[in-house]
Structure formats: C-alpha cells, structure tokens
Amino acid sequence: MLLYKLLYFLKNNATSLRLALQEVLLNKGYRKFSRLIADAYLMRDISSSDIIHCQFSTLAPRILQLKNLGFIDKQPKIVCSIRGYDITNHSYTKSSYWQTLFSGIDTFIPVCQNFESLLRNMGCEKPISVVHSPINVRHIKSSPDIRLLQNPVRLVSIGRLVEKKGIIDALTALLLLKKKGLVFHYSIIGDGKLRQSLIDYVNAQKLEECVEFMGSLPSDRTLSILDTSDILIAPSKTAADGNNEGIPNVLKEAMLMGLQVISTTHSGIPELIEHKKNGYLCAENDPEGLAKVIEFVAGNSQQWLDIAKHAAATVMAEYTPEKTTEDLIEAYRAALS
C-alpha cells in the first residue's frame, strides 16, 4: 500500500513527495515517513474544504506538516479544539510545540473559558471561540422535582480512576463523615490505574460496607444508578503531572437528572456550577472542606428542589446539542472571516 501511495503522489504531487523525502525520510526514518504518506493519502481530497477541524491539539501538528509540505492547499482554515488533555499534555516549558500551533492554527476552540485564559497567557494571539461540550438531553430524563433524601444517603462518582478525578479525596471526606455518624452508600463507577490502590484504602479504613466499586458500566446502567442516587461527588483536582479537567460532562448529566452536585473550584467547573445556587463547590485537594460540604448538603434536603431546578435550567440553557452547535457554527464563521 505504501508503494501504491508513493506512485500516486509521484504522479499527482511530486513536489510535495520530494519535500517529504527530504524532510522526513532522510532525517526521521522510515516509520514517520510511512505515517506521513498515509496521512497525506487519506486527506488527498481535503484541500477543497473550507475548514479542517482538529478535534484534539495533538492532531494539529500532523495537519500543519501536510500543509507546509504542500499536500494540503493554503485554502482551508484550520481550527483546533482544546480540551483538558490538550492544554496539559504539553507543559508551558515546551513552548516550541505551542508556538508551532499558534503560528499555524487559524482559530482555537477551547471547551471552557479557563482554557481560553490559559491560551492567552501562553501567548496565543489567534481568534479563540469557546464552545462547550454538549450532553444528549433527549436521552437523559430530566427530573429535578421528585428526588428525596434516602437513608442511607446515596452518593455516586463517575469517571476514570486517575488522579485528577480526586476519588481519594472523596473517600477521605467520607471517612471523616462516617466517624461523625453519617450513614451513606457510595458507588464508584469507572476503572483505571488507581483502582487497586483505592480498594486497598477502603479496606484499610474499613469502609468496604458502604463503598462499592462498580467498574466500567454501559451508559444505560450508569444512568439508572444516577437516577437512584441523591448526590454526585466530583472532587476534580490538578494531577501531579499537570493534568486538568475541562468541564466534566457527568456534572451536566447529574444536574439535568436532579441530583445534588458537589464539585471543586477546578479549571472550568465554576463556569457551570454556582455555589449554593445550582450545586456546591469546595476547594480542590481539600478532603476536610469536601466533608463539610457533603455534610451540609445531606443535612439540608429542604433546599434540594430549588437547587435542582436551577441546575436543570443551567444545563438546558447552555449545554444542549442545539446551543453548542450554534456556538460551533459561529466559531466557523469567525474563522472564515
């Protein structure tokens, strides 16, 4: 297949093929050259497009390389989404990576205002349009007016079991509350490299009777557990390697379904949650502060209805596919103009 693609470019774009041979094959070896030719062949008809949208910044250098070598014409505008992995995958010390993107990308599309600020602070002078990630509001039942406090209070967290999700902080907070007499059941949905260490912590602290690790579950099963829970805990925090969240979709889903949502003042989360209006916030990496918020929420169920209605209204106003599609179209128009 590589030979076929080489013959194709030898006939249709010999100049770009020669430049690729000089820049990649002679300097970086066969494997990177093979991937470059595969990329170029896959996108051989893309030059007639108005916009090329890189859904992750890690894809952008490959597109820019194709454009610089002439495999892609100068016509298409290149836009690039920026999510949590993107903005933290390459630290600020790796300025050459970001300067390449800042010089080659026409418009950046971060998923939250916090990432827009980070891009500006890193030196980005290109147009930036914030476009939030939507949730499927047709698939998720909105029921903010029927949820009542259960005994034991049912808590849930959903996400990969990695450091930035802060599950260890939730477990530490619940250990403090158990000692104060709170009766609860905590379901943890998700899997990841920290699973065993978290299980070991639960066993060591004798929390196994009230904490359940449910592993990765399909969407319908996850939604059914959310539907029977009282409070969602999302104690997000900055990981040791700098990894950040954007605005986790699970927060939006839980808010739409009528749960009380507790999270942290991490990254873009305060753009979604307004403390004591449509949810609750505490400082990140603060189990004691998290415990106080959980205790307050569990002890003030008379406020749940008002909080839940405001939460559902927030999601329906800003995070539907219709709203985010309108925002994306406006970002495209800005890029073209």
Description:
This protein is α/β, with parallel strands linked by helices and 337 residues long. The chain folds into two domains: 43-121, no CATH class; 153-318, Rossmann fold, CATH 3.40.50.2000. The chain has helices at residues 2-12, 14-28, 30-42, 60-69, 84-89, 95-104, 113-121, 167-179, 195-204, 219-227, 249-257, 269-272, 287-298, 304-318, 321-336, and strands at 51-54, 77-82, 107-110, 153-158, 184-189, 211-215, 231-234, 260-264, 280-282. A six-stranded parallel beta sheet has the order 6-5-4-7-8-9, sandwiched between helices.
Descriptive keywords:
337 residues, three-stranded parallel β-sheet, 15 helices, elongated
Derived structural class:
alpha/beta
Give the end-to-end Cα distance, rounded to a whole number of Å.
39 Å
Order of helices and strands: HHHEHEHHEHEHEHEHEHEHEHHH
Relative strand content: 5-15%
Q: What is the name of the CATH architecture of the largest domain?
A: 3-Layer(aba) Sandwich
- Overall, the morphology is elongated
Q: Which strand order does the major sheet show?
A: 6-5-4-7-8-9
Spans of at least 5 consecutive residues with low confidence: none
Number of strands: 9
What's the number of helices? 15
What is the average per-residue confidence, as pLDDT, rounded to a whole number?
Answer: 93
CATH class descriptor name of the largest domain? Alpha Beta
Largest sheet: 6 strands, parallel
The structural domain count equals 2
Specify the CATH homologous superfamily of the largest domain.
Glycogen Phosphorylase B
> What does the radius of gyration come to?
24 Å
Estimate percent helicity: 40-55%
**CATH topological fold name of the largest domain:** Rossmann fold
